[in-house]
Structure formats: C-alpha cells, structure tokens
Amino acid sequence: MELKKAIKERRSIRSWHEKKVDMSIIKKIIEYGTWAPSACNRQLWRFVIITDNKIKKQLQDAGAQGWITKAPVTIAVFYHKDINSKNHANIQSASAAIENILLLAHEHSLGSLWMADIGDFNQIKKIVKAPKNFTPVAYILLGYPKHIPTAPKRQNPKDIIGHNTFPGTDISSSTYPEKWTTENIIQFQEKTCRATTAGHKYFKYPKKVTELIEQEIIPKINGTNLDLFAYDGHTSSIIAKKRKIELHECSNEVINFTKAVMKKENIPEKNYKFILGKAEKIPKKNNSTDNITIILKLERFPDKSKKKIIDECSRILKPKGKLIILYRNRTSLGWLNKEYRLKVQKRNKIDTHYLGMWSIGPYYATTEKKMNKLMTHFNIIEKKGFLTIPFIKTALDKTRIFCEYQLIIAEKKHN
Q1: Backbone angles phi, psi at 181, to 5 degrees
Q2: Mean residue pLDDT across the chain
Q3: Pick from 354, 395, 73: which is nearest to 216 by CA?
Q4: Containing H/E element for 75?
Q5: Regarding the domain delimited by 3-143, which CATH topology (the fold level of the hierarchy) does it fall under?
Q6: Which of helix, strand or coil describes residue 128?
Q7: Which residues of the chain does CATH 3.40.50.150 include?
Q8: Which of 17-21, 61-65, 156-160, 230-234 shows the lowest per-residue confidence on average (mean pLDDT)?
Q9: CA 370, CA 364: separation in Å to the nearest integer?
C-alpha cells in the first residue's frame, strides 16, 4: 500500500468483529513498529500482546477505557522510564513505534485504536508483570473493523503552520463561555464528536430531566418545531420520539454524529431533518416556525451570542410563536457544588465531568435576570423551576430561585 494512501485512509476504530487475528500478523506488525526512530537508538520499548479477556477486564478495572474489552487484541506499549523521561524522549520513542504499528495494521485490513487513557501505571505493571523501570505509554487495540468512520475534516494548514513564528492564536481551555468565540466552540465540538463511537451520548443528565422534557415541554409543542443545537442528540431524540422536528446545527460533523444517535434510538427518519447554518444566523425564513426549543444549550455560548441567538428566534417565529427554553440556574442549590469546584478547586478547564457531562467545551449556568434581558422581543407566559432530587416543580418566585433547572415559555410579541 502506498504510504500516502495509508496515512489518509487509516481511521480510529471502536467496533470490531469477534474474528481472531493471526498471531504471526500481530508479531510482524510489531516488528515493523520497531523500525521507528528511538532516543539514542536505544530501542528500549516492550510490547505485551493481550488476548486473554480476564486480563483485559483487569486492565479496565485498573482505569483503562471500556474499549479494551471490545477489541480481540490489545497491545500494551512500554518504554524504559530512565531514558530522558524529563524531556519525554521515552514517550516520543514509543509513540513513533505506535504510529508505525497503526499504519501496518491498516495495510493488513485491521482496525486500530491508539488509547492514551490507560489507567493506573502501577496496577498495569503488576497485571502484566512488567519491571519497575518500564513505564506503560499506551494501548493499541486491534481487530477486524465492523465500522470504518468517514474522514474527519482537517484543519486549514495556514492556521497550524508558521514560518519562523508561531501560527494562529491560543486555544481556550476554560469552562467559561465568555473566554471563547462561537466559532471556536463549534470547532471544539467538531473534534470531540469524533472522540467516541458515533451514536454515543456524551451528556449524563438526570433521568428526571427526560421526564421534565416529556411532561413539561413536548405537550407545549404544537405545529412546526425547530430544535437548536442538538450536538449529541440527547434531548433532541426525546422530542423526536413524540413530535416531528427540524434540528439546527452548525457543522456537518456534528450533524452526522447526531444522526447516528437518532438511528441508535430507533427514531424514524421522517420525524426529523437537519438544517445547517451558523449559530447566530439560522437559514430559515421570517415568521416561518410555530415553536423553537433550546434545551440546556444556551449555557455553552457567550452572552453576546446568546442575545443574537434569541433575536434570531424572534425573526423566525410566527407572530405569537412559542420559544421554549430549559436552562441551568446559577443561583440554585444544585449549582453550588459546581461553583465550589470552579472557584475553590480551580477546576475551570473544559474537562467538565463535574457538571455531569463531558467533552462539550465551555459550559456555565446562567441567571433568571440575564435570561429576562434576552427576552426583549417576547412576552414570558410561563416560568417553572425544577429540582431533580427529589423531583419537585414550582412556579413560585420565592422557591424557584433554588431550583437548578428552569423552564421559560415565551410568546413572540406581535408588532
């Protein structure tokens, strides 16, 4: 196989057939891996081929991602830790060999996954009986692929290549949307929706949120409905099971990912269609839609973008059309723990596991006061607050302020 072809066609695979891989092929692939450059040409790498499912399960229990139990073959890659580890020469050497292995695996029609999130180093070494001076660097998962994803969109070379000076600007890693541009948020989502199997739901909302959508939002939808910013399809799929909807997204990458969610949820294609456009410019005619839903999505955008998005909703909605927004409330009891982690523990990076979700980029709850300011073209006809543990709903102003989930139903003003 031509090298350029192999480089462009290789994909990260996350689903494999159970068909066994010939051990002689695996060993030959690793042998070619060792023709990679290594620090001082010491070649201090080691490779452990793992096919025993019990050992894979032990490695998963030690912190490896769950994919390790799905692939027929796992190769654990080690390198001697004393070879200039301060400057990562050990990691670089092992990584060069890993890339060779991935390309050779592709040539042999094998699907591979380079797994860097491998778990506790000491437990790994104990499980495979590795000497103390060797450090685990990564796992390579191998097998005959069930599904080969399409090629991801690549970055523009002019944005990543500099001549005698660093190209472009810094990339935000803050959980605060105000430190991001809308374009950067969309670019981040494009990348992260490729970080797992298409159809996987990133977000981990409480089950009561599903009930909230089914009981409080879907019954309010009559006529045409536009759902904004589906991303992983979690909330959109709930609506699409009961109502026909249009889904507005800002990237073909995200659209394809969300389509896979819809398919996995067994939602008929006739129930939904996608509209591709910019976050702040939706390709819909004036006064063309009966309802717009924005469910737990505005929290991802900076305030200026929020205003433009809500103004777009006003343009698109028919006179007296409904805007239905569910959002996280910053002044609630449920958000206090998140604020503690943000402000005290300084966990203000885009690793947002502590929000009950991950890989979504910036995310920060808003306040009722800020939401009211956005509604200049709307009459608010209903407000409710919801606690999920226990599941309590209230429309009373004095108690609604303590509820983490807030629902606004607004009607477009008739000018």
Answers
A1: -100, 160
A2: 88
A3: 395
A4: strand 73-80
A5: NADH Oxidase (3.40.109)
A6: helix
A7: 207-412
A8: 230-234
A9: 13
- Residue 240, CA distances (Å) to 94, 233, 271 in order: 47, 10, 6
Output the CA–CA distances (angstroms, integers) from residue 24 to 21, 49, 133, 394, 402, in the order listed: 9, 12, 28, 66, 63
CA 303 – CA 309 distance, rounded (Å): 10
| Rounded CA separation 170/182 (Å) | 15
CA distance 298 to 279: 11
Residues 6+ apart with CB under 8 A from 209: 235, 296, 388, 405
Domain 207-412's class? Answer: alpha beta
CATH 3.40.109.10, the chain: domain bounds: 3-143
From the number of C-beta atoms within 10 Å of its C-beta (0-12, 13-18, 19+), residue 75 rates as buried
CB 291 within 8 A of CB 221: yes
Cα dihedral across residues 299, 302, 307, 313: positive or negative: negative
- Residue 199 reports pLDDT greater than 70: no
Determine the longest span between alpha carbons in the chain, in angstroms: 76
Rounded Cα gap, residues 130 and 247, in angstroms: 51
Instruction: Say how far apart CA 294 and CA 217 lie, in whole Å.
Output: 11
The predicted-structure confidence for 97-121, as pLDDT tens digits, reads as follows 999 999 999 999 999 999 998 999 9
